[in-house]
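As a next step, we paired sequence with structure tokens, yielding the entry below.
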Amino acid sequence: MNATKVVVALQAVNDNTVVRPYGDGLLVDLPLTYGDGDGVRVLVEPMGSGYRVTDRAAAASLLAMAGVNLSTGRAAEAFAELMVGAGLNGVNAAPGEITTFGAADDLGRLVLDVAQASLRADQLRWLAPRQAGMGFVDRVTDRVTAWAGRSRELQRDAPIPLESGRNRPVTLRVANDSKAAYVQAVSLRDPDQAAEYCYHVFGLSTIARESRVAALDGSARDWPAAIVAELRTVSDVEFFDDPLSLERQLDKVVPPPQAALR
């Protein structure tokens, strides 16, 4: 194998790296992808005599949407261990953010180090609980199915469009001829993770807020007020134990077709 030819071939890595201005810094799109197909992007910002490089908590956001809670337990420990192993100094890092700082001469290595650490963090998705909240998902599905009858269409694990152009699954899509509502079941089995997934997906969605419905397990007294308040910024919130509240909200968003009313 000719080493010179290999080096020339590796120029494709550089050719497929895209750098664009972003505020006072630069966004760097690398020819690397996370497990769900998203491209790896880091932000380079001038700071003092050097540069700060960050993944802007991209990996942490993907993990939250996969159901991994980085704030406690094994996932938090694994994330911390990963950061130590990567040798990053974590300057001014927000929760879940992967950052480092260094001199201009080391900028290439800094970008690569943050990108690699972000990719490794994304692999922690295996820590997501298996089938978390499926019992409540089935209860929500049965309830909405009974309400919908034959006049509306239901799709389970429905893709909801995000601002990035990608899709993410939500529990149900309910539609008539012209309107649709997206319902996400939020279980009490692991309320923090369930609420975080709902918040991230609905918050990143292009669907109008009034068409997003968070169906929370139990009643209002079962949920911290802060979680409910957060979810209400991105969706309508209905509690499963409130008689007919979910159905009334869906009736507002997805009324029965006119033919069914005659």
About this structure: Strands lie at 18-22, 25-33, 39-47, 50-54, 99-102, 153-161, 167-175, 180-186, 212-216, 236-239. The mean pLDDT is 86.
